[in-house]
Design a protein that fits this description.
This protein is mainly alpha-helical. The chain is built from four helices and no strands. Helix 1 runs antiparallel to helix 3. The longest helix is centred in the N-terminal third of the chain and has 35 residues.
Length: 119
């Protein structure tokens, strides 16, 4: 198969554009989440809402997880663009037999370990 360098470059650019849009969304979302948290104030109800009650997760922990997940998603977009460009710059022609031979040398995935990124 021939490597479609312009197509790969176009895909990398699309991931970069989306990564920028994600970064803007994360910033806005963080500001909105902070505003919601601040709305409840420092009284007993506000602290319970923010920190959680009876061992349950509060607003602080939940929003932290949400923001962390979005940050990972954003980083993945940037990494995809980088890897697409690296691939298009170093591979001119490939055949399925070569790709299969490379993939067959990889160890089988561990069900508890993500293929990419972190859990």
């Amino acid at each position: 198969m021939e490597i479609d360098r312009p197509g790969i470059e176009s895909s990398a650019e699309a991931f970069e554009i989306e990564a920028g849009e994600l970064a803007a969304f994360v910033t806005l979302m963080g500001e909105e989440l902070d505003a919601i948290g601040d709305f409840w104030g420092d009284g007993k109800e506000g602290v319970t809402f923010f920190k959680g009650q009876d061992g349950g997760m509060g607003y602080e922990a939940v929003t932290g997880q949400v923001m962390e997940g979005i940050d990972v998603f954003h980083s993945a977009h940037q990494e995809i663009a980088t890897r697409l460009r690296a691939m298009s710059g170093s591979v001119a022609v490939a055949d399925w037999e070569s790709v299969l031979a490379i993939l067959e040398t990889l160890p089988p995935p561990d069900p508890g370990t993500p293929v990419w990124g972190t859990i």
